[in-house]
Amino acid sequence: SSPLFLSRLSSFDHVDWQSILNDIATDIQPYLAKGKVASYIPALANVDPHQFGIAFTDIRGNTYKAGPSADTPFSIQSISKVFALVMALDLEGEALWKKVGREPSGGRFNSIVQLESEQGRPRNPFINAGAIAVTNSIQQHYCSGSDSNNKEDDKKLYTRQYTHKTSPDEYNSIAINKILDFLKTCAQTDQDIRIDPEVARSEALFGDRNRALAYFMRSYGVVQGDIGQTLHTYFHQCALEMSVTTLSKAGLFLAAAGQNPLAEDDGAMLVTSHDHVDRVNSLMMLCGHYDMSGDFAFRVGLAGKSGVGGGILAVVPDVGTLAVWSPRLNKAGNSYAGTLALEWFSGRTGVNLF
Ligand code: DON
């Protein structure tokens, strides 16, 4: 296996990561009251808002963490879109870009307006429409046997949904299990990542906007097959749950040129190509925080992806991966304290890419 790129990490050998994280966890306290917890589903609205955790895993595999909630599992929500994108890129290669673009949307994460003027092709893989297209691609790959463009099947699907008889058991879970397994392999854990069934149920119950996006895209032929199945997978993917400590490990390959320094076989295990990692990181930098992506890049200077559960994953190429969690959100749906903590981390350590 090719060598890890340790030289950039060595240039930070003077930095005491642990004491910087400790200071941030202390200094952030007065800011934990700022912002509002996501309220679109009860499962998220009921989370204790006054929580904070931050973790950093370097590309040698050392993890540092601080804050009382560093080991508390939370709903990673849209951060899952990063891992799904890596999977879809590996499965589909360049063809994926026919379905989804690479431009910031400048709009809210669940907006539908651009889809109409842009032939149903979402601006990027991190707005909901784009993420649903990515999940559709994974779905099509693993479950093509159960998928169909057959109108009879579609009729059955509509009947199922309109009569509200749909039970989650009617869907197959191959694709969502592949996504779950991918995250577990990345983080090298079996226990620390799960799908919260209550969040998944809530997503489905209050998921009409996402359904609208998905069916609208299918009317343009951008997504194909059983859309109910794709949405089922998407709703469960949003309900993935883990702590910042685990998340910083799961995303480590994004800082390690696609390799997994946590894997035990000789050398590092290859998660994906260096090329895919560079592209995913670029997209995170430009589109990872919706219509506040510019603000995040300006303040933090790192590739990052937020989730409406209050988590953020940030990548310092060739150095390490950061994860932060605090449930209260700013107006674009990104963690208020989490963004501030990353801004401080970047400023205090000098890891800002620019
Ligand atoms: O799809 C949805 O609407 C939710 N699962 C929210 C996804 C999300 O995290 C958007 N981000 N900040």
Automatic annotation (TrEMBL):
<dbReference type="GO" id="GO:0004359">
    <property type="term" value="F:glutaminase activity"/>
</dbReference>
<dbReference type="InterPro" id="IPR015868">
    <property type="entry name" value="Glutaminase"/>
</dbReference>
<comment type="similarity">
    <text>Belongs to the glutaminase family.</text>
</comment>
<dbReference type="GO" id="GO:0006543">
    <property type="term" value="P:L-glutamine catabolic process"/>
</dbReference>
<keyword id="KW-0378">Hydrolase</keyword>
<dbReference type="InterPro" id="IPR012338">
    <property type="entry name" value="Beta-lactam/transpept-like"/>
</dbReference>
<comment type="subunit">
    <text>Homotetramer.</text>
</comment>
<dbReference type="Pfam" id="PF04960">
    <property type="entry name" value="Glutaminase"/>
</dbReference>
<keyword id="KW-0732">Signal</keyword>
<protein>
    <recommendedName>
        <fullName>glutaminase</fullName>
        <ecNumber>3.5.1.2</ecNumber>
    </recommendedName>
</protein>
<dbReference type="GO" id="GO:0006537">
    <property type="term" value="P:glutamate biosynthetic process"/>
</dbReference>
